[in-house]
Amino acid sequence: MQTLGRAMRMEAREAAPPAGAGGWSKWVRLNVGGTVFLTTRQTLCREQKSFLSRLCQGEELQSDRDETGAYLIDRDPTYFGPILNFLRHGKLVLDKDMAEEGVLEEAEFYNIGPLIRIIKDRMEEKDYTVTQVPPKHVYRVLQCQEEELTQMVSTMSDGWRFEQLVSIGSSYNYGSEDQAEFLCVVSKELYTSPHGLSSESSRKTKLLQARGTRM
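Now predict its structure.
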């Protein structure tokens, strides 16, 4: 036990900043769930309304101290690291196995508004990706005459594409010339989300749908 205590004291001395680095008053020790974090008052005061800012500014928050003078905070130290780093450089960096829900819970406890918004945005993006429905193939059969093919090609947009062109003979006579008729099969992929279709039919798409009703 004596050897362990001596090793812990040596580790604490190695982690402490040198006496000439601006004085001890600018450094703050936090004992979060048994793990000691060393940072500056400037970092903790980055978010003025946060629990940590109020703590290092001397407000009475009923926080005890351990034998080394570190503030005792009864929270999970696993998620405190990303929170402290966010206060240091303004970025959320998480290990791949770290649950965002855990960091969000701690960010809400410490009342760090910008971090809360970032995590919620990330979680909403993941939820959208997971719940997004695979694309649905929609097919339309359009009836047209030979002279209308060029016009129909010009209206093919918004993701519609040709699948098949089938000749159905000549049904119309204009003067002495027969007009060949075709069935044109077109398709489109529609991506859906929990809130409905990702995009609405445009004017040109509606034109294609209207032409399909001629059958």
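The chain is about 35% helix and 30% strand.
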